[in-house]
Specification:
With about 280 residues, this protein is an alpha/beta fold. The protein has one domain: Vaccinia Virus protein VP39 (Rossmann fold), CATH 3.40.50.150. The protein has ten helices and ten strands. An eight-stranded mixed beta sheet has the order 3-2-1-4-5-9-8-10. Strands 6-7 form a two-stranded antiparallel ribbon. Strand 2, helix 4 and strand 3 form a beta-alpha-beta unit. Helix 1 crosses helix 2 and helix 2 packs across helix 3. It is globular, with a radius of gyration of 18 Å.
Length: about 280
């Protein structure tokens, strides 16, 4: 386990891999991956969490491999316009940290690449950080997870984002959907209460992995998205518009600004070291 000055590595991940989480969260991802075995990540972005998972696996000395799934469309860097550019960027990050041999990049969604996972080998660590539809990914892994599979779910918060671009408004309910689904799975005993660092859940499966998704319960969750409230904070709207403009005209500079903002944000709210129950 990395302690003391070595934790600077996780801050470095934010800068080198354009990571969007706090250093404390990357450290916890690293620690979770020390379990070893087959590790599956859904939502690669630019590979910050992928590197943390692979470093944790490497430090454990245990056998294992990381499979990371992402269609590689869109993403945090608009200057990276093609799937090939995105993969090359991620591979560069993996090589930088000496873990390229421990990771297989799957440029597709989980369902599309599921057949590539080793047959008969259970998933020991699962990280979900795609579009909030964690029920879809859990169902795709039906029967593939260990009974006590370690589970990481990012963007778990009762938050709806509204962004304006010209005359169009974009409603982003990813975080709230993850929050509703995670709380439902905790309350029904399918996953452990675990804990949450900032907006990332860390816990375990606690039920038969072939029965984790109940379609009726999931439908009831999605129906809660019909009417929602979103923050009307003026400063947040101004910041979002400035960042969207920056993404269009100077995406690399905008990425640097995001990193500075994240560091200030995590220091201000003091959540790098504080955890709370995910289903409180």
């Amino acid at each position: 386990m990395l302690e003391g000055a070595d934790t600077e590595l996780f801050s470095e991940l934010i800068a080198t891999c354009d990571g969007m989480l706090s250093a404390r969260v990357y450290q916890r991802i690293y620690q979770t991956a020390q379990r070893g075995g087959l590790i599956v990540e859904v939502g690669t972005a630019l590979g910050a969490a992928t590197v943390a998972l692979a470093l944790g696996l490497k430090s454990s000395g245990k056998a294992g491999h990381v499979y990371t799934f992402d269609p590689m469309t869109g993403g945090p860097r608009r200057s990276i316009k093609s799937v090939e550019q995105r993969i090359a960027w991620i591979e560069k990050n993996l090589l930088r940290y000496g873990v390229a041999d421990l990771v297989t990049i799957m440029p597709c969604d989980l369902a599309g690449g599921l057949a590539e996972l080793p047959s008969g080998e259970p998933v020991e660590v699962l990280m979900l950080d795609a579009d909030g539809r964690i029920d879809r990914d859990l169902e795709a892994l039906h029967g593939h997870c260990a009974a006590d599979c370690a589970l990481i779910i990012d963007d778990v918060a009762d938050l709806v984002r509204v962004r304006r671009k010209g005359a169009t408004y974009r409603i982003d309910s990813k975080m709230r959907l993850s929050w509703l689904l995670t709380n439902m799975l905790v309350s029904t005993g399918r996953i452990s209460p675990g804990e949450r660092l900032v907006n990332t859940y860390f816990g375990d499966l606690t039920c038969d992995p072939t029965r984790i998704v109940d379609h009726a319960e999931v439908l009831a969750i999605y129906r809660q998205l019909v009417f929602q409230s979103a923050s009307a904070n003026r400063l947040q709207r101004i910041r979002s518009r400035l960042m969207e403009w920056g993404q269009e005209v100077a995406p690399d500079f905008a990425a640097q600004c995001r990193r500075v903002y994240r560091r200030a944000k995590y220091r201000t709210i003091g959540t790098d070291t504080a955890g709370d129950k995910a289903a409180a």
